[in-house]
Amino acid sequence: MENQTDLNPSQLNVLQQLGSRLEDRPQFDDDLQEFLKSNLDEKGRELSSSIPPNETLYISKYHLNQVMRCEKQFLSDREEQFEWSVPTARGTISHKAIELSAFWNQPRVDPLTLVDEAIDRSKEGSDGLGKWLRNLSEGDVAQLRGDVNNRVASFLETWPPLEKQWRPMLEAPVRVDLANGNIILSGKVDLSLGRPLGSTAGKVIVDFKTGNFYPAHREDVRFYALLETIRIGVPPRLVATYYLDRAEFSPEVISEQVLEASLNRVVDGMTKMIEILYQNREPELCSWERCSWCSEEDI
Length: 299
Description:
The chain is of the alpha/beta class. The protein has two domains: 23-73 and 165-280, Lambda Exonuclease, Chain A; 86-163, no CATH class.
C-alpha cells in the first residue's frame, strides 16, 4: 500500500472505518446458514403454488423497496417497459469504471479515462444497455460522461487504492434460489473486501450512493448480508452505505438479530408481491406523504 502520508483525511477515514483486528471480529454458529435458508425456503414453497409453472419471480433490493414503500407504484412499474436513460445508466457505468480502477495496472489513472473505457466496454455488450449506448446522441454522451466522471472522481479522491490483499470484488453477483427455483433473490454487491476465516466474520460489504440518506439504503445492505450469509455460511462483519458526494459512511455491524430482521422483511415483501401479482389482491395505498401515486387517490 502507498505511504499513508500520501492519503488525504477522507482516505484515512475509510481505512479507519473498515479496518478491524482479528480478535475483535465476531464468530457465528455453523448452523446459521441452514437456519436462514430453510426458513426462507419454507415460506417460498408455501407461496410458490400461486406462481404459474412457466414463471419465475425475481426479487431484488429494488423490488423489495418498491413493494414495501408503495404497492401501487410497485405494480405500475412492473407493468411498464424499462427504458435506459442517462439517469438510469450512470450508476451502472459508474460501478464499471470504479471496478476498472481497482484492477488498472497504471497507477493514478485519471477518472475520465476510466469513464470512457467503461462506456466503450458497455457499448460492446449485446444487452439493452449496449444497444442504447450505440444509438446515443452526442449531447447525451457528454452528459453521461460528465455525470459518471463526477462519481468516479469522488471515489478516487476519497478512497485509498484498493490493495490486492484486501481481496476486492466489485459488482459481484449473489443469489439465493427458493422453492426449486420458482423464486430467486438476487443482487450485485458494489464492493466487498476481505473474507471470513472459518466461522469468524471478515468480509465488508459497501454500497455506493449519492444524495440523502434513506432508511431503505440500510435495508439494501442488510439484504446483501442475508444473501451472502446463505451463500457462504458466514455473515459479513460489517455493511456500509458510502455516500460519494459527501464522503460519509453509514455502517452497521452484522449480527444474527440483523439477519433475522432482514429475513422477515424479505418474507413480508415476497408475500406482498405474490398476493398482488398472482392472487389478485388489490394493492393498498401507502402512507408516504410524498408518494405521487397514492396522493392522487386522495384528490
